[in-house]
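Protein entry
_____________
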Amino acid sequence: MGAIPFRKMHGLGNDFVVIDARARELPLSPAQARAIADRRLGVGCDQLIVIERPKSGLADAFMRIRNPDGGEAEACGNATRCVARLVMDELGRDHVIVETIAGLLDAEAAPDGLVTVDMGPARFDWREIPLREPCDTLHVPITVGALADPVCTNMGNPHATFFVPDVATVPLADVGPVLERHRMFPERANIGVAEVMSRTRLRLRVWERGAGITLACGSGACAALVAAARRDLTGRRADVVVDGGTLTIEWLADGHAVMTGPVCTAYTGELPETLLRAAEPVLS
């Protein structure tokens, strides 16, 4: 099938290989997705993003998200901003609708080259996270090491946010994979550790399900702000400082979480056919 063009993009260091598959289908296997995401043998990325034709008549594009482990993810806020920027530039518009398996996401251009995305409603019912058993999602009975009592939120994907005095002291690389696969999470979960700096500022680090520690996590930032507001630790709008920079998150009165942040294209290139054949010679 020949070489496949791609863009390397990122939102605050949360990086993506973005492939446009609207003109022709690209049925990548989990093994091929892993090969592309491999930082030593492939291009390397936190997520592989495939832009497809929209399934809904309301959407301008469909965004498929693959984690480095080859599995499919429901939502990614930073990738949504990247795809929205590409489609807005392509169509010459300042508003587009990006479709994901989790639903339709409105995105619009913001001042200073930023992009704002409505990530949809934050959900709190234990069935919606989902959790394995009924409990109050504002105080979930989970303890691993020094981390305990998280708030659980579904932002199109499951999140558990632990509030700590100092995120720098948390051994996230050690506790992240344990918590991701905790028995309470039948579909695994993204794990955030958040430090309240003020009523309008949070510090956040995230272990992403299927990806590990990333420099930024848009849906995780939304989950952290919503969790903090539910516990009255912040207001409904705050800057969330992640390892790669700052996102502005607002939890609207209608329950939707809105995220604003930057987008960057690092470079463009082509995936050689040999990379995909080495992973799994099934493309046709």
